[in-house]
Write a structure and sequence with these properties.
Number of helices of chain A: 10
Helix content of chain B: over 70%
Order of helices and strands of chain B: HHHHHHHHHH
Order of helices and strands of chain A: EEEHEEHEHHHEHEHEEHHH
Oligomer: heterodimer
Shape of chain A: globular
CATH class of chain A: Alpha Beta
Number of strands of chain A: 10
Strand content of chain A: 15-25%
CATH superfamily of chain A: P-loop containing nucleotide triphosphate hydrolases
Structural class of chain B: mainly alpha
Strand content of chain B: under 5%
Number of helices of chain B: 10
Number of strands of chain B: 0
């Protein structure tokens, strides 16, 4: 399968914080890649590089063979139409109802008539099993529902690439399983390439074609779920089994001593105005 | 020209300066950062104002929020200011048998100065704070990131309607404030102090010129622009969760109020 997204030697730091330290990663067209890693290891930063909200200090991000660093501001804004992104808490617009939220990208980026937009919104709501909630406000929805509305908004334009930023964090196991099913169902129907960021291993094994583990600013493991479970790397095994004693904790402590802190707080948002 | 590279260049220079170990004292750096951001977002607002899509519905929604919903508080503020002004000047001018000038004094004070400044301060407290809080909340809940991901520039979608709605509505509120302030003065002078209503009305407009009115309205438009750009800017650059939103809201009101008072001096010097 052809490569959809190619990351080469991505380095990124925020002030003294070295967050990404030489990421090399290929994502194939149509695959579902899950990126796992501890809190503050730069998973969301990696996602923001892929969508062009951040630019690397060094290295290249190519999507469909186009190097994002060669695009100007207007080109990259246009380029983002290929993406759909579902945010951690949904990031729904409080001032609009569910229908308004899902219709937003359709109204802003297409000239479709209102009836067609309404049909599309209803179809997206059906895909995430949320028929009949179109007139509700985001504040009237549960956490799991808000995320599913976020998914519906992300897929409204039938994007080539769908990004899920920690879609199950903070949800109960049953809702998590429902969310995973919705993701699988969406990927099955849309034929899109998907990248999911998570630290929920159960969820990762359910939705991934391949799993990549980010640690110390690098990809330290990349394999299909069954192979991933069998990897010898102690860090991978510690993460999978959630052990408190092991190399991940020791590495984190030594990095803190060396002053290369984790990206717990994420990037300062003004960094994201680079493009 | 796209404003994107401007930001990159500025940041590269900042990074180079940091790498060389050169740093300005904290408060100076903070002040310059805020001033730089103000001009940056103002420039980007101008840039996006003339580019489609034009969100007319949102523009009218903001006009209602900033303008129509401010009418009650503007009414109270300017009516009572006019009344107090008449009360104070009547008793003072009476000593010199010059009470017939109260109408002129109230009208000139309201139209040239007080209506614009007071309405500006009220709208800064009401709408500037709301903009800071709304955009700040949108920032910390990733709604602004979501806009960018959906190929929508947040300056285009959030700043443009707010900035121009406030710039247009503040002069309209000031017109209302002028009328109410003069009416408040009339009520006090005629009803309370027993002035002759016909003479008072005549004196009110005797010394008032068109330039007095236009200068007050120009001031109001500038204040409106400052309130909205500062309010949106403070919200847009919010960091630090709920506490950060609170900080942005307070800062939006304080900064806009200071900007109104300082710019009022320079505008007065320029316009009269």
């Amino acid at each position: 399968m052809p490569t959809k997204i190619r990351l080469r030697d991505i380095h990124k730091s925020f002030g003294p914080k070295q967050v990404l330290n030489g990421i090399d990663l290929d994502v194939e067209t149509g695959e579902s890649l899950v990126v796992i890693g501890g809190s503050g290891t730069g998973k969301s930063v990696l996602l923001k590089h892929i969508i062009g909200l951040l630019q690397p200090d060094r290295g290249t991000v190519e999507v469909d063979g186009v190097d994002l660093s060669t695009l100007n501001h207007r080109e990259i804004v246009g380029f983002r139409r290929r993406y759909g992104m579902a945010f951690q808490e949904g990031a729904l617009f409080d001032s609009m109802d569910v229908r308004g939220n899902i219709a937003f990208p359709l109204k802003r980026q297409t000239d479709r008539p209102d009836e067609e937009i309404n049909e599309r919104v209803d179809r997206c709501l059906r895909l995430v099993n949320l028929e009949g909630v179109g007139e509700k406000l985001p504040s009237e929805l549960s956490g799991g529902m808000r995320r599913r509305v976020g998914f519906a908004r992300a897929i409204a334009l039938e994007p080539d690439i769908v990004l899920f930023d920690e879609p199950t964090t903070g949800l109960d196991p049953v809702t998590t399983a429902q969310i995973d099913e919705v993701i699988l169902n969406l990927l099955d129907r849309l034929d899109s390439t998907a990248i999911t960021i998570t630290h929920d291993m159960t969820s990762a094994f359910r939705v991934a074609d391949r799993i990549a583990m980010l640690h110390g600013g690098k990809i330290i493991a990349l394999a299909p779920p069954e192979e991933f479970k069998q990897l010898d790397d102690r860090r991978v095994q510690q993460f999978i089994h959630g052990e408190t004693d092991g190399p991940l904790i020791q590495d984190r402590a030594s990095r803190r001593r060396a002053g290369s802190a984790d990206a717990e707080a994420g990037p300062p948002h003004e960094e994201m105005e680079q493009v | 020209m796209s404003p994107g590279p401007v930001v990159e260049d500025a940041r590269e220079e900042q990074a180079e300066a940091a790498a060389e170990g050169f740093r300005l004292p904290g408060p100076v750096e903070d002040f310059l950062t805020e001033v730089g951001r103000f001009f940056l977002v103002f420039w980007r607002t101008l840039y996006w104002t003339v580019r489609p899509p034009y969100d007319v519905k949102e523009f009218f929604r903001q006009m209602v929020k900033v303008g129509v919903e401010s009418i009650p508080v503007i009414t109270l503020t300017t009516l009572f200011t006019g009344a107090v002004l008449a009360l104070q000047t009547f008793t003072t001018l009476e000593r010199f048998h010059a009470e017939s000038y109260v109408g002129s004094l109230v009208a000139l004070s309201m139209v040239r100065e007080l209506s614009a400044v007071l309405s500006g301060l009220v709208v800064a407290g009401r709408s500037g704070s709301a903009m800071g809080a709304e955009l700040g909340t949108m920032r910390v809940t990733e709604q602004i990131d979501a806009l960018e991901v959906m190929a929508t520039d947040p300056i285009h979608y959030l700043f443009v309607p707010r900035v121009w709605a406030t710039t247009l509505m503040l002069p309209a509120l000031v017109m209302l404030g002028n009328a109410l302030g003069i009416f408040g003065g009339y009520l006090v002078s005629v009803v309370l102090m027993g002035a002759n209503p016909v003479a008072y009305s005549h004196n009110t407009f005797q010394f008032l010129e068109l330039s007095d009115l236009t200068s007050g309205l120009i001031k109001a438009a500038v204040f409106g622009l400052l309130i909205a750009v500062i309010g949106c800017q403070k919200g847009f650059y919010t960091t630090g969760g709920a506490e950060g939103v609170g900080r942005s809201t307070t800062s939006a009101v304080v900064t806009a109020s200071i900007a109104i008072l300082i710019s009022d001096f320079f505008l007065t010097k320029l316009l009269f």
